[in-house]
Amino acid sequence: MYHSQYFQYIQIHQRLNALAHCNYSAASGGVSIHVHPHWLEIWNSGALPEGATEQSLLKGQISILRNPDIAHVLYLRGLREKAGRGSVLMVQKCLGNGLPSPFWKSDPKLGVAVTFSTPEVMKLLKHLTGEMSRGDLQDAIGLRDAEHFRKTYIHPVLESKALEMAIPEKPTSSK
């Protein structure tokens, strides 16, 4: 499946799932979804439950629903999986569609974000070690074509805000 088509599927499926986990008691509560050709981010105002970590989500060990009634209705309609299996199924579906595993970022004050990226974005991030020049990154990945590297790797990572330019006011700088 083409990445953006898969991102659309994830967007719909995870928007429904996020409704069951959202913290509606907070005035700033909500869900937001950012869809781009090379990455997708779903943010939820609710923090991870006590004892849950980004790593425990990958194992499906903890599931505490803030809204069990919403979750139950979605489950009965086939729009949500059994409690505690969502993160594991997301990883399996990503890998089954040639995409890297999603990654979670949690902050008790800011909420939880799960990001899905294309293999190119994840490959670049894996090779990133501190501040690196474009040329160093390109060499680390083993690519020769600078234009292809910029379009397929650098631009999507910059758009996702997972990477920043060292000197943003000089976009053609090698840093």
From TrEMBL:
InterPro entries: Fic-like_C, RecG_C_sf. It holds the Pfam family HATPase_c_4. Gene3D superfamilies: 3.30.565.60. Residues 120-174 form the Filamentation induced by cAMP protein Fic-like C-terminal domain. It comes from the Bacteria. This is Filamentation induced by cAMP protein Fic-like C-terminal domain-containing protein. It comes from Sphaerochaeta halotolerans.
